[in-house]
């Protein structure tokens, strides 16, 4: 496998937008049949599409999406439309539940009088669907949200939206923690995790911090991929993809906001 020195992985913040700019870093030169993870798209449809182009996603790849497809950004409907179209077109996708999907589904069951303005980013999501209540979105979109599992395991990784509750014997029993947990790194149960690395999102993290964590992910047994795509703050405002097969990070500057 081609390995490059750390300084060739990315450029200094905030110019980390394309680590595939040189022929040497072209994704087509790495192993095919890749496993790729992306998280916390938050309604940024154009940015999501641009990142898929950047990683040169093919039907041979497996794409893992770790939740929070909706809210805050301008086109949540477009994000889910694209996910469903990729599935229909034969792309291999595994999509996980995020806390925003969980809240959205719970709201879809609520009576019309419930104060929806209390939920961050919901107004933008409803506007993208041109409706006033979560229950009014297309049935196939609600079915998609309802079908989402809380975590997934592959050969070398645990995939989850937020994290795990390591204070209990079996972290898989705490579904709430998987979509809401924060600040769990210090309590990681290495015996339970095994040789796998936990990939997750949920907590917006500066790109330089993600790169630092990337260098230590084997020791930490974790790597966060949420680079705060929807937040226009220096060091954030990027959507991140991680090629799990070749261990490559890709960053796409937000082009929706």
Q: Would you kindly provide a written description of the structure presented here, covering whatever features stand out?
A:
By secondary structure, the chain is of the alpha/beta class. Helices cover 28% and strands 15% of the residues. A hairpin with a 4-residue loop joins β8 and β9 (248-253). The longest helix has 13 residues, at 76-88. The relative contact order is 0.20. Residues 1-24 have low confidence and may be disordered. It comes from Flavilitoribacter nigricans (strain ATCC 23147 / DSM 23189 / NBRC 102662 / NCIMB 1420 / SS-2) (Lewinella nigricans). One of its GO terms (cellular component) is cytoplasm. This is Calcineurin-like phosphoesterase domain-containing protein.
The radius of gyration is: 18 Å
Order of helices and strands: EHEHEHHHEEHHEHHEEE
Number of domains: 1
Low-confidence stretches: 1-24
CATH class: Alpha Beta
Strand proportion, as a percent range, falls in 5-15%
Number of strands: 9
N- and C-termini, Cα separation: 37 Å
Shape: globular
Please name the defining characteristics of this protein.
single chain; 257 residues; alpha/beta; Purple Acid Phosphatase, chain A, domain 2; five-stranded mixed β-sheet; four-stranded mixed β-sheet; 9 helices; 28% helix; globular; disordered N terminus; phosphatase activity; Metallo-depent_PP-like; Calcineurin-like phosphoesterase domain-containing protein; Ap4A_hydrolase; Calcineurin-like_PHP
């Amino acid at each position: 496998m081609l390995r490059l020195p750390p300084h060739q992985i990315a450029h200094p913040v905030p110019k980390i937008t394309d680590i595939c700019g040189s022929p040497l870093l072209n994704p087509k030169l790495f192993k095919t049949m890749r496993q790729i993870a992306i998280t916390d798209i938050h309604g940024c449809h154009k940015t999501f599409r641009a990142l898929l182009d950047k990683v040169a996603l093919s039907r041979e790849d497996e794409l893992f999406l770790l939740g929070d497809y909706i809210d805050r950004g301008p086109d949540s409907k477009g994000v889910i439309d694209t996910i469903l179209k990729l599935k229909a077109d034969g792309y291999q996708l595994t999509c996980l539940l995020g806390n925003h999907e969980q809240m959205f589904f719970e709201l879809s069951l609520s009576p019309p009088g419930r104060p929806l303005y209390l939920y961050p980013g919901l107004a933008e999501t409803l506007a993208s669907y041109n409706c006033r209540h979560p229950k009014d979105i297309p049935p196939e979109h609600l079915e998609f949200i309802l079908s989402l599992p809380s975590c997934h395991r592959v050969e070398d990784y645990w995939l989850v939206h937020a994290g795990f509750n390591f204070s209990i014997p079996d972290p898989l029993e705490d579904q709430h923690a998987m979509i809401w947990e924060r600040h769990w790194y210090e309590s990681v149960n290495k015996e339970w995790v095994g040789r796998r690395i936990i990939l997750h999102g949920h907590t917006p993290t500066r790109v330089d911090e993600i790169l630092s964590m990337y260098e230590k992910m084997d020791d930490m047994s974790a790597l966060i991929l949420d680079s705060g795509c929807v937040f226009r703050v220096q060091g954030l405002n990027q959507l991140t993809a991680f090629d799990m097969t070749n261990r490559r990070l890709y960053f796409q500057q937000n082009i929706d906001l």
